Amino acid sequence: SLTSIVIPNSVEFISSQVFDGCNGLKLVVLYNSVKTIWRAAINCPDATVFCEPESRPNGWYSDWCINADTVIWGKKVVVDENFIYEIDNASKSLTVMIYKYIGSGTTIVIPEKVTIDGTEYLIDNKKKNAFRDCSDLVSVSIPNSILSIGSGAFYGCDNTTIYCAVASQPEGWSNDWKS
């Protein structure tokens, strides 16, 4: 029944096949603190794996992750009950992006800001498909602080009403953001 896991910064070692057969696992987050991962530690066909390191560290076996849907390197993400937020490690700005909606609610109000590790960040939604195929969503409220919305952000949300705090489409919003 495990659907997501954020390996805490205190973990340095992950043994072989620890997540083998977790077919419901959709999200795994690994931070720079992980120094060693043995073979086939992650074997989950539908998982998206976020790795804070920019490439595979020396202590990670070459086949540490098999059969995962996607492995994304060089991204720091933070997960709360509703969203996966992506923090750009290279950026000096205090903005985060909504990578994906993972909540179960049918009515969402996107917050203007989020506090992560004691720092307040503005939310920006540059990512494509952040709400893709969230067909159970009834309504989404977008504050006027959202500076950009990626293409297809609401693809597959055919029965969702989208409330925007702005009167017209802002310049940074992709033309097909609500496709």
TL;DR of this structure?
The chain is mainly β and 179 residues long. It has strands at 4-6, 13-14, 19-20, 27-30, 36-37, 42-43, 48-51, 70-73, 76-79, 83-87, 95-101, 107-109, 113-116, 119-124, 139-142, 161-164.
Provide the fold topology:
Blueprint: E1 4-6, E2 13-14, E3 19-20, E4 27-30, E5 36-37, E6 42-43, E7 48-51, E8 70-73, E9 76-79, E10 83-87, E11 95-101, E12 107-109, E13 113-116, E14 119-124, E15 139-142, E16 161-164
Parallel strand pairs: 1-4, 2-5, 3-6, 4-7, 7-8, 11-14, 12-15, 15-16
Antiparallel strand pairs: 9-10, 10-11, 13-14
Question: What are its keywords?
Answer:
179 residues, mainly beta, five-stranded mixed sheet, four-stranded parallel sheet, 0% helix
Protein described:
The chain has a five-stranded mixed beta sheet with strand order 9-10-11-14-13, with no helix packed on it. Strands 1-4-7-8 form a four-stranded parallel beta sheet, with no helix packed on it. A three-stranded parallel beta sheet has the order 12-15-16, with no helix packed on it. It has no helices and 16 strands. It is mainly β and 179 residues long. 28% of the residues are buried.
| Uncertain regions spanning at least 5 consecutive residues | none
Proportion of β residues? 25-35%
Outline, from the CA principal axes?
globular
Please tell me how large the radius of gyration is. Answer: 17 Å
Biggest sheet strand order reads 9-10-11-14-13
Class inferred from helices and paired strands: mainly beta
How many strands?
A: 16
Helices and strands, in order, run as: EEEEEEEEEEEEEEEE
Round the mean pLDDT to the nearest integer and report it. Answer: 87
In DSSP terms (H or I, runs of 4 or more residues), the helix count works out at: 0
- Distance between the ends: 32 Å
Instruction: State the share of residues found in helices, binned by percent.
Output: under 10%
Biggest sheet, in brief?
Answer: 5 strands, mixed
